[in-house]
């Protein structure tokens, strides 16, 4: 493996304004791709926000019209796009994480740990596993799940090359965001792309703080609180070099932990 040019799109999501958000996401994704991004990450439920009052029109079923639009960008620029949308599957709604690689659906992850009010609307996913792309394995984490170190650890032990967290992490707890994002990288010795939203909705305001972090836990790009795109070229070979010097994963004594 060599360098991986990644981009995080920190969006101001317009509540329930689906077409507006999709157009913005497509435009910003195209810009990131034209600037050389191989991996493009969008925030959690970027197309609608948590549009509880109109879940029926917010949710999509396979083959997901919103993702088909992003697939065109992904195919045109031969890149991977990651994010989440609201999915309707049979009689249930899910927070559906997705990876689109070179125009194709490469993998999905349904959020396993809904937070607060989400529990009244979303069903829980029942599987935690990384998405295997052609030359990269991605561990996908969705917002509140950042607080569960077991998730990132399982994804790491399952062969992830990079952890990607997509979120709508609000202001009152933004200091937790900064700490947890770095901690998940440090404790797993793995690069971390953490993509939060900015702006506000009916209940909360969001200060962004999207970051790209290397396998040492160093912040290499920080979006601050404004809408925009951050880039960084991750050295994927660095992970193995770090683990050769201090291999936290192999030093674990799992027989003592449970």
From TrEMBL:
Any Pfam family hit: CN_hydrolase
PROSITE patterns: CN_HYDROLASE
SUPFAM superfamilies assigned to the protein according to its UniProt record, in alphabetical order: Carbon-nitrogen hydrolase
InterPro entries: C-N_Hydrolase (IPR003010), C-N_Hydrolase_sf (IPR036526)
Keywords: Acyltransferase, Lipoprotein, Transferase
GO molecular function, one term: acyltransferase activity
CDD domains: nitrilase_5
Domain named CN hydrolase: residues: 4-236
PANTHER family: DEAMINATED GLUTATHIONE AMIDASE, NITRILASE-RELATED
Name this polypeptide is given: Nitrilase/cyanide hydratase and apolipoprotein N-acyltransferase
Species name: Methanohalobium evestigatum (strain ATCC BAA-1072 / DSM 3721 / NBRC 107634 / OCM 161 / Z-7303)
Lineage: Archaea, Methanobacteriati, Methanobacteriota, Stenosarchaea group, Methanomicrobia
